[in-house]
Amino acid sequence: MDVTLLQELNQARAARRAVMLVTHLDTGAQRLIHRGDVAETDPLAEEAGKRFLSGKSGLFSDADGAELFLTVHLPPPRLVIIGAVHISKALVPMAQLAGFDVRVIDPRGAFATEARFPAELLHADWPEDVLAQHPLDPYTALAAVTHDPKIDDFPLEQALRTGCFYVGALGSRKTHGKRVERLLAAGLSEAQIQRIDAPIGLSIGAASPAEIAVSVLASIIAALRLPAETR
């Protein structure tokens, strides 16, 4: 691989940006495609979109019959849970099993204890302080489940501004209506706020914390893997 191309690839991976290395199997020619920067006129635009969603590398024949190998590099997906509550206790192991790097943030000492959550993923601090050290990015999902605006609102605002691939919040429609008013006052647009999955999770009639956790994880995976128009 060309040194310049390798440096570009490594820089993208270090910055948690999705890229795809295209290798022409006959000529050995290579190029990089960055997610979000693919021109509509690029002959690989449609296929690149599918690959960036699935994360799967593999062979592809272009319109001219050339054999290409598409190597997809996606950042490991993260899940930041705001609130060390019962739903979170069920959601953490499920999300880890699904391959997510999980972090739980809650400043309330009664909830954020090592007896309830593994120490290596628990942050018993305010979201403002934790996210300053561990910023959100487009390959992060955020689930706010404390039901407390003093704790939930800041990370929700940051997630929407950063472009997290999933943003969900616990609460009734009435509660969410008040949340929308606060976020509008904070300067977010209606289009940004509409991205919030609220009430949080897939509508499956979930009742128990474990069932709600299943519905939340299902929504997160759908946001990660499915085109927006099909969700």
TrEMBL record:
<dbReference type="Pfam" id="PF13478">
    <property type="entry name" value="XdhC_C"/>
</dbReference>
<protein>
    <submittedName>
        <fullName>XdhC family protein</fullName>
    </submittedName>
</protein>
<feature type="domain" description="XdhC Rossmann">
    <location>
        <begin position="79"/>
        <end position="220"/>
    </location>
</feature>
<dbReference type="InterPro" id="IPR052698">
    <property type="entry name" value="MoCofactor_Util/Proc"/>
</dbReference>
<dbReference type="InterPro" id="IPR027051">
    <property type="entry name" value="XdhC_Rossmann_dom"/>
</dbReference>
